[in-house]
# Entry
Amino acid sequence: LGGGAGTGPVAERGLLQGSGSEDEAQPGPAAAAAAAAAAAKREERLRKFRELHMKRNEARKLNHQEVVEEDKRLKLPANWEAKKARLEWELKVEEKKKECAARGEDYERVKLLEISAEDAERWERRKKRKNPDLGFSDYAAAQLRKYQRLTRQIKPDLEQYEKLKEQYGEALYPTSDSLLHGTHVPSKEGVDRMVADLEKQIEKREKYSRRRPYNDDADIDYINERNAKFNKKAERFYGKYTAEIKQNLERGTAV
# Structure
């Protein structure tokens, strides 16, 4: 009876349950495909994350390099770009001279051959001009140019000069030992001529009005003309101290 009970319906049910658990332990083809797709999607996301991480590091590195270069430019003199261009031009001229010397040619002749006819005519016209305006270099040069322009307008009285020369002789040409104060009394005609010249200068200065050039590409940081003048004054005195703060605000890297 004990053996019969072991081979009854209860035993068959136990056998069926055991076979079902073994089938569930082994995943089917659909589950394996889903797991493989999930793994591929996860790998793709990790790859994109690594790419974004590398791009962020590269952007941070480039931003740091730009900040360093900008700091170097701010520490350079105001006319550094002009000096750099001048030095590069001088280096090119020296190299050209060495090449001409190696070929046995005259550098000045080679340079003239490279100049166009239009440039040569423009330079000739500039040379022929009297007292050409070369732009502002310093106050001494501007004062000399003004002096030369005023002295060209003076028309000397040669007859009066000859009379004074006969009257004073060598004393007409003062030396370091000459006493100048009180020895010369200008004529009424000379005083009138000087007054007329001064009045002409004053009248010309009053008519002259230089309009400041307006830059359309400049940033508008003012609300009216008076505020624009105030901002220019503030920039002139405090611009070098606030330049870095302004650049950080524009870049969005301000703390």
Remarks:
- Confidence is low (pLDDT under 50) at residues 1-6, 18-22.
- The radius of gyration is 46 Å.
